[in-house]
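Technical note accompanying the year-one report. For the benefit of new consortium partners, we illustrate the data format agreed upon in the data management plan: each record pairs a sequence with a structure-token string. No post-processing was applied to the example shown here.
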Amino acid sequence: MRLKKGNFINCFIWLLWLLLSSCVEPYEPKVLRSVSKFLVVDGFINSQGITTIKLARTLNLTDTLNLPEPETKAQVQVEEENGAPYLLTEKNPGTYVSGKQTLHASRRYRLLIQTAAGTKYASAFVSVRPTPEIDSVSWRVESNGLQIYVDTHDPQNNTHYYRWEYENTWEFTPPYNSVLSYVIDTVLIRRDDIYHCWKTEISPRISISNSIKLSQDVIAQYPLLFLPAGSEKLRYRYSILVKQYAQTAEEYQYWEMLQKNTEQIGGLTDPLPSRLTGNIQNLTNPDEPVIGYIGAYSLREKRIFITNEELPQEWVYESGYSDCEEPFPIYLGDNIAAYLKAGKYIPLYPIARPGLIGYYIASQECTDCRLKGTNMKPDFWP
């Protein structure tokens, strides 16, 4: 019996696929099998205040954790060159905090770390750099959003290299306001406010600039942050706290390289990743990579507020709750506990005609703002 041409081709393709698939072996790159978890040191030596240092370990590509593992129970000290060290205390897992300190401007300092396993690390000794004041934090409405700027200068013409961080804080509300709560099989008048909340986010990007090519040490209108028109952060009241740090040329280069490695890679024309070299090393194994750069300088801060009334009235703001379903009624004859006991739904307000006959309820995600922020009003909030 002869095969038709079409059937013969199909059989040939099937046999070829079977042969090739039997020859394929899984390939696992060496980098995936690596178990190295390098130390990450985040922070700086505050010359006029509290020093906060965070220690963690890098993640491997095969790790299922989303967050780096904190390096706990370490001994962390700030040491003055030819002087006595002072100890930092672990306040939270992997976060080490000093008391308030005022360092000598003419002396040099470094960070000493000894892990719980006994491994010792040290940063290079660095001189103290005073950070100039922030001249202003300003903003301007543009066609598609809000641009925030920072201005600064050093009248002594000594700083030249600057880095900024910021904290966003904004007020928000969920779609539905609950005046009732469900406690031990009973619907009661709510005593806590779960409708008004605040959320704070730290800057996710590296912000640096320099005046090295200018005749004066001035940074004018540096574009720190852009918020799109209608951002939920601008719905009621928004605040930004800008933090400014003076940098050495070496530390600036470190942050510039980190910026290129994390923010400017992905396209064919983007720069290739570079080896990140900080100023911290393992004292017994100098070849071990350690991520971080420890400088010594003061901190300058400035906060501003922006209210909805100051922005274009035609802007339509996102709420952050675009997927919420409408509230629905349950009645006294229904199994109320089946809806409310597990906490998936929250009672909003009573239904009375004229006496009480039931309640309107809505999902917890669309009613309890504490799931996305805190209902504790920040101390700095008006």
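Partners are asked to follow this layout when depositing records. Helices lie at 5-23, 30-33, 249-263, 336-340.
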